## 1
Amino acid sequence: MTTEELAATRKTGAALVDDLAEQIRNRIMTGEIPIGAQLRQAELASNFGVSRTPVREALRQLQTSGLIEVLPNKGAVVSVPAPWDVREAYEVRAELEALAAARAVRRITRGQIDQLRAANQEMYDLSVAGRGDGVPAQHDHRRSNDVFHTLIASISGNARLSKAINDINETFPRNVSAQLIVNDSRHRDENFQEHERILEALADGDAQRAADQMREHVIKAGEQLARWYELRSSTVFRG
Amino acid sequence: MTTEELAATRKTGAALVDDLAEQIRNRIMTGEIPIGAQLRQAELASNFGVSRTPVREALRQLQTSGLIEVLPNKGAVVSVPAPWDVREAYEVRAELEALAAARAVRRITRGQIDQLRAANQEMYDLSVAGRGDGVPAQHDHRRSNDVFHTLIASISGNARLSKAINDINETFPRNVSAQLIVNDSRHRDENFQEHERILEALADGDAQRAADQMREHVIKAGEQLARWYELRSSTVFRG
DNA sequence: GAAAGTAACATTGGATCCAATGAGAGGGGG
DNA sequence: CCCCCTCTCATTGGATCCAATGTTACTTTC
């Protein structure tokens, strides 16, 4: 299908705009729209079968969340994350997820621990099975990883905390980090074991350890992502 | 002057929309536009001397940041904060500001400590002088308070952290907390002394204590704000 | 042949238009 | 007397319009 108007079964108002923003965000997150790419209003409008008006409102939302940058009279481009900015953001995210893990200790149930363990195992299996399979494997992997992290955040019982973590996550396309973990067995194993350590701390009811393990894990993930963007920018300058 | 078009000297594009969003946000933050109030596009448009188009984009930005809610075909209203939501948000803010304080310890200079001390003293003096003077005193007080907190955040050296803290702050109108502190001498004194304790920890280079004091201070402020909203909602239901 | 100017084209951006939905008043029926 | 229906008005929301700005390719000149 050339357009996705079928999916947007005649929504209207805030619903339509939010939906547009969500779909554009997804395309950026998955890398379908690459970093630095121009977002032309007319093109997006025809893609989604609407006029430019709601598209522009959706772009404003994405601008506010920092995923795109809007230059006066030049339009919107997907933000290219600076490595230092990634490190800063992940330091914040690490602290927030550490808080979430600490809080989750007091509220987590046996069933939820099993759920988390299953998500982690699934993520590992997907990584092993999908080596080199490219985009779909990365996509599935990212989903399981998101399940793991968002589940802990939601168990924390603080909706604002979940939202704050999510807001940071939505700032950077993360298909790249999935790529790393899927294709590099060392990263994959480390990632799996870090999750397991967090799980153990949660199961033990050790809030301090859960927080520390989570903080360390997220910082490490951020470092990998920052490195990837460093590599990428130097490649771009060469190529 | 009836309109503020003078201030908006023919801006255009993202600059105009951002400016509109900023001005509307200010009016909400100061209470000039009260909580729960309807925001009519046509009214705002004529107030600012523009058409409804950029106003709608500005409203989308405010919607994304959570300050207003947009209901389909019914327009935008200023969000009325639920007390539990305020507590949750301030728990997050407390953690972020604690991190900022801890990080600031390693970077703060003697001059900056003096600056902070001056801001705190000014805030106290303004509170004493402005008792009962109403809106202007509250406004000045809130500004000095903001200086104190944003300065520490900026000293932390993590721009994302500053932004995350700011994003949470911009979610709730805070004229009310200023009102509390200006008019209640006990709150005023406690606020002053909490700031002093944070300053001492910063001056001593004690990251742990700075973080703990800051966390406690912000949680307490959040509790006050939440209480205020509780009181308000029960009053509204009676009146 | 290169650089600068210019003219056509593409794109953004605010204003305006009209359809659609919602709110409220007035009137008719139970 | 109260309830409900309908008609009208206010407001939102997407589409369209036109001016303004930016970009690119072509031409002209040195």
## 2
Amino acid sequence: MNIEQHITTATIAAVKHLYDQEIPENQVSLQDTRAEFEGQITIVVFPVVRFSKKSPEVTATELGEYLVAHIEEITAFNVVKGFLNLTVADSYWLNLFNQKLLSPDFGAVPANGKKVMVEYSSPNTNKPLHLGHVRNNLLGYSVAELLKASGHEVYKVNLVNDRGIHICKSMLAWQKWGNGETPESSLLKGDHLVGKYYVIFDKEYKKEIEALKAEGQTEEDAKKNAPLIKEAQKMLLDWENGDEAVMSLWKTMNGWVYDGFAVTYKTMGVDFDKYYYESNTYLLGKGTVEEGLEKGVFFKKPDGSVWIDLTADGLDQKLVLRADGTSVYITQDLGTAQMKHDDFQMDDSLYVVGNEQDYHFKVLFLILEKLGKTWAKGLHHLSYGMVDLPSGKMKSREGTVVDADDLMAEMVETAKQKTEALGKVNDFSEEEKENLYQNIGLGALKYFLLKVEPKKRLLFDPAESIDFQGNTGPFIQYTHARIKSLLGKAGYDPVKGGAKNIVLTGTEREMIMLLAKYPAELIAAAKVYSPASLANYLYEVAKLFNKFYHEVPPIVKEEDEELKHHRLNISAVTAGILKSGMRILGITVPERM
RNA sequence: GCAUCCAUAGCUCAGCUGGAUAGAGCAACGGUUUUCUAAACCGUAGGUCAUAGGUUCGAAUCCUAUUGGGUGUACCA
């Protein structure tokens, strides 16, 4: 039993003994004692006052006396207004450290038997990935890793949007103006090459619209009548009919994109257990619509279109099948949700998708619930905010996007410059150096994007480079590298186990308390699907360690062997947590930097 | 219009199921290296927690309204 549980139980007993009242456990409110007061754990006594019928000060004092008398580890108390500050014996903290934190499986949360799917990335195959996708990918990856680390069995899946009118636009433009250009001939990455034609399409399309407007058509008509868009629509129909030439072009160009994506994914360090392709799933969902009609959840309008009325739930009427019997977006998603569940039988399913689709997922989940899918309650939309530039939104057609590949390359380059300026790794081989720059540059980027709460929008200023100091990825990486260097120089031997007979410094005690929270932090962060929460915790750990490191005389030179070993133990546990926590964020911590 | 999210220091962000004098980083200013990596540490300065009510012993946190901003509201995806 840990000390917090012990205190809670004893407080309940104390209230019974002192005031003959039954206080519910949730009324016993514990918190860490603020640094300016004596003690480590504080009971907020206001809730207890209701049972004691005495003033907060008197209640706190009586409670304090009882706890000191009944709990061996509590050696003293003080009362400040309505707060009862308890001093826990160093022997308890040292024991906690030696028994729990030093154990090799510390931080490993046991499996909880729950299966969860995380769908993320889900790119379109008509253009390369940009900064917005980067946030999606890092978030999806790290949430999946976080869920794994907190005991879930996790499947990462990627639902690729590989068909549709936007894909045809790139294909058509390439056919018309590409002159047979390939990634090999142009030396362009496949996804960038295809994206180039997507932009060309848009440019030519706009020209046609302008021309038609000059002939007197309205903007709306012009958009519909432009020959290019008609051709693209024709191409989409041909694709749906399996036209050989179109299919062949589609496969070729998508192949280029996949080659390009594979490189980007590899650099980002994300992976998937399974890919779904919309070209295989876009016809799904019609069965679900039938099912809904039979169950009376959906209704048919005279023109044959199928709807669901969600006005009673504060939403609107929603179309689920067109009058001509073809699918809309939500039709596919209904079918795909069913298929994913049939494939994996997971308990929970996460969709990592931007907040512009909040309404869509609300509707989707509600429909599945109304259809009586028992698994619908396990569906969750992990909604995240847009990444904005100082100039506003990124628009791929207007060329104001921050390209993922470019950005990552720039980050690595910046890492290189900063590292070279410090001149600490001149003895590294070229390969080691490249590896290090990669880790630091991407570490800075990933931490920058992940430390912000997912639902908040994120401002990225390309003119202002991402920091490498303070609350950043490199700061945490540096702390880790520094510890590793320390352990090496001091000849740290983990086998020696825990040190006894040590007097803890205040910061050491704080370290132990903070480090001990790691497993609870993992579970809490996973529960709210927030890598940001973990990121901030890791920052606290690194910051406190650095304080400790500066406060204490050089550990390497410490003559008291037991004290030296103890401080190395604290350092080693810190390094272990930083490493495993950062790995969950998708960030590699170097041994040296 | 309706729905929904956001609003905390000059800037970027923390702030757990309501709890003590609201915390970090960056930027600014001042200090720390004959000591284990100064990508570090210590200090100074910086706030009517958008506004107004309400609930409560206690509100940045919960409720209501208002203001400002984002997003959505297609037989697009």
## 3
Amino acid sequence: MAVELRPSQALRLLHELSLAQVRDDAPDLSPRQLAILLSVYLETPPHTVRGLAARLGVTKPVVTRALDTMGALHLVSRRRDEADRRNVIIQRTVEGALYLEKLGDQVVAVARALPR
Amino acid sequence: MAVELRPSQALRLLHELSLAQVRDDAPDLSPRQLAILLSVYLETPPHTVRGLAARLGVTKPVVTRALDTMGALHLVSRRRDEADRRNVIIQRTVEGALYLEKLGDQVVAVARALPR
DNA sequence: CGGGAACAATCCGCTGCCGTAACGATCCTT
DNA sequence: AAGGATCGTTACGGCAGCGGATTGTTCCCG
């Protein structure tokens, strides 16, 4: 079944999530970075810079820079496509999977605590 | 009843929301700005700079700057507390309420479209 | 009434992200 | 083999946010 949610609950959910994110001194991903990370982990590979840029409606340098940042955090990694060496394949990492797993659990926990 | 949500659904929800936010060329609020905005609209007034800073665990200049930015977008407004003129009371605006209303509806729509 | 406390705003230097425009490498087509 | 197209990256100048320290008001209390 679809997830039932009223607007007031939705805003409370966002509120709790944003408070948790701000207070965590965890690496504070920007909206664009998070969108890229989720695309890499939730959509079917392979992922290229160009593909992600088109998917998000942003320019390629934006993707490159986001990958630089998240690569330094070990949330994603890059590899040359040997079949077409112009392409770069974006790969998932253990740390990235763990990061998103925690994030998902956090959302679930907040949702469960939401007032009726 | 609490909102039922599985981790995979939670991540899909975040994915759709972040994609929508990135593609909208709407004023892209930072996580901190959104947290402040939601606190102002969802928690009981009055709201002061100091109170919000303590609530989010950030410094006061962060709140002042966020209010500058969101004030320019007419999402919030400021007023001197006449009872204690050291304080600044953060007030809601029609535009801000509308902004959050749309945001809440968007979350609901995405949640409803989530696969079982 | 005077000195200190509380509050918000501002200043400072720094870091990170932005968009545009280039660039080098690689592929494809002829 | 050569020209053009495609891909990712980098260079550049600009803008916004950050933390920490400081300032100017206003209040409080002895």
## 4
Amino acid sequence: MAKPKLDRKTLLRNSLSVFKTMGYNGTSMNDLAKANGLLKGSMYHYIESKESLMLEVLTALKDHYVSRVFNKAFDETLQPYQRLKELALRAEEIFVFEEGGDFLVNIGLETKNSVPAFTQVIKSFFQEWINTMKYLYSFVLDEADAKEKAEFMVAEIEGSVLMMKLLDDVNYLHRTNERLLKEYKELERQKVYK
Amino acid sequence: MAKPKLDRKTLLRNSLSVFKTMGYNGTSMNDLAKANGLLKGSMYHYIESKESLMLEVLTALKDHYVSRVFNKAFDETLQPYQRLKELALRAEEIFVFEEGGDFLVNIGLETKNSVPAFTQVIKSFFQEWINTMKYLYSFVLDEADAKEKAEFMVAEIEGSVLMMKLLDDVNYLHRTNERLLKEYKELERQKVYK
DNA sequence: TTTTATGTACCAAACGATTGGTAGATTATT
DNA sequence: AATAATCTACCAATCGTTTGGTACATAAAA
């Protein structure tokens, strides 16, 4: 058996970086092959199709967020506020430096009417995120308010990331995070005084 | 035939509706021709290239928003709060029913690294929107705060539209608008008591 | 230990289909 | 007859995918 040039993780990471800058339809198999140091045809030793590759990339990314980022919200060694802070910090890293956070949104919008399989994964990512935030807000708000707050918090962060990208203003997300953290602290204070 | 089948406006509207559902790279000249009741070759009687067509669509859309929607903010026959309300209402119509509002975002993200000409138009749309909002907030906030508020308001609305689309939840934007309007009223009240 | 067999990894080339775009003939209107 | 709009036919290039064949590392057989 010949040694493979690539392990699965490298393949996915290389492919992600291409998809990220060119989008789904904008990326050709040739582009992907080049990024992986292969010829176009050889790619099909690793994958079944372009679509299945993208689906795997999306799924891996989603799973990564859920298990490595969102899980911070349930770390009982920390106070709720500290957990939120950790999450915000990680989000900033992801969106600003790794530039990988809005990827799911971009692809979701681009392929909404053409590849339902993508939409499903992306949708579940946001549901997970919202649920995570809802849990954290449940410490300072009642059920219904926590849900609403969580939904808008995610929308707000996504909106900030979006404007950050479109207007090339890196500070957008940071300021949003600061605002959300301050607000949370205020909610905690109100809760205590009740 | 001396008479063209299409006037410019119809051409742009038909093309927009295709670009909207399939994106830029996902739309072929054949798709565009079909939507306009023409064969592919005939399209080139109207346009120079696919890219120039899209650019015209984007520009027309942007100009429409600026002259027909954003200008409400400067309608001196109305109180500032009423102007904001008008804007919010129009925004809801546009984003929910015409489904045309997030188009600029979608295309902006899809082509960010490949077609700079698009990016420029889209960027200027958001700058105009932010400036419009900044003007309205300047009635109840000082210069710096108005600017910040305007930036986040636009991000918030865009985020809501985004989540609305990705999660198929039509209420998102409406609730965001209600929240923003209530907040504005509160800011007005605070201003008066100062 | 050497030989043989097997399966993996990859390349080079080509597949049919589709891409954005062009040229020239045809049609309809003035 | 002149003009403008449209169709038909085609181009070169690229698309995602499949092919036939080769290099090579391992496993089994001698």
